[in-house]
Amino acid sequence: MSTNGHGHPAPPILLTIAGFDPCCGAGTAADLKTFAAHGCYGVAAITSLTVQNTQGVQSVHNTPSAELRAQLEAIANDCDIAAVKIGMLGNRGNAVVVAEFLDAHKFAHVVHDPVMKSSSGTELLDAGGIKFVAAELLRRARRPTKIIFTEPDARLLPPLPHSWRPGEDCWRLLRSPRSM
User: Fold this and answer.
1) Cα distance between residue 48 and residue 148, in whole Å
2) Which tens digits make up the pLDDT trace of 85-140?
């Protein structure tokens, strides 16, 4: 285990790749709060900026794919990332960047939670992104990987060869029955 420069063990560094919710109830802000509550140090790459409040999403502004790639590489070049959590990707271009990033870095722990629709019904991942997530990103999952969907998001996906049971918190575990 590494130290923080003061002789104390450094907390694990967790990367969230997701959108930014200015109300901090979801996305990178919520992930970072959760990481901190569990004694981890969180870093974030922003895929989208949303204009929203507690009543709903008014608009979504996706980060250009080149900028997302630059964010991810800057973080990976500076931090010893223990695990990655993937949330809202916004579009196919960002999904491709994340898949390439995962391929290049082979992280031991990855949680996929590709948010596709807000709780108020706003689409948060374009049709090309949904197809890519199903056809490429999820099928690249290696052990141990958790894949989590809300039931409405799971219903947007085309059929996958892996079974899932509605009502469970963790909708799919691919290639490994072990939890993280």
Assistant:
1) 20
2) 999 999 999 999 999 999 999 888 888 888 888 878 888 999 999 989 888 887 76
Write out the two tokens for 31. 């992930």
- Name the DSSP class of 121: S
For 104, phi then psi, to 5°, come to -75, -30
Chain centroid, CA 95 distance in Å: 10
38 contact partners, CB below 8 Å, separation of at least 6 = none
List, in sequence order, the alpha helices (H) in 44-150: 65-78, 92-105, 127-132
The token pair at 47 is 């895929």
Give this prediction's pTM: 0.80
Structural tokens at position 55: 């009543």
What average pLDDT does the segment 69-88 reach? 95
For residue 179 the two structure tokens come to 């939890």
Bridge partners, 57 (sequence order): 52
All domains in the chain, ordered by first residue: 13-174 (3.40.1190.20)
Provide φ and ψ at 47, rounded to 5°: -90, -25
Is 110:102 a contact under the CB 8 Å cutoff?
A: yes
Q: How far apart are CA 105 and CA 126, in angstroms?
A: 26
In sequence order, what are the beta bridge partners of 19?
Answer: none
Dihedral of alpha carbons 72, 160, 150, 12, sign: negative
- Specify the residue for token string 């630059």: 70
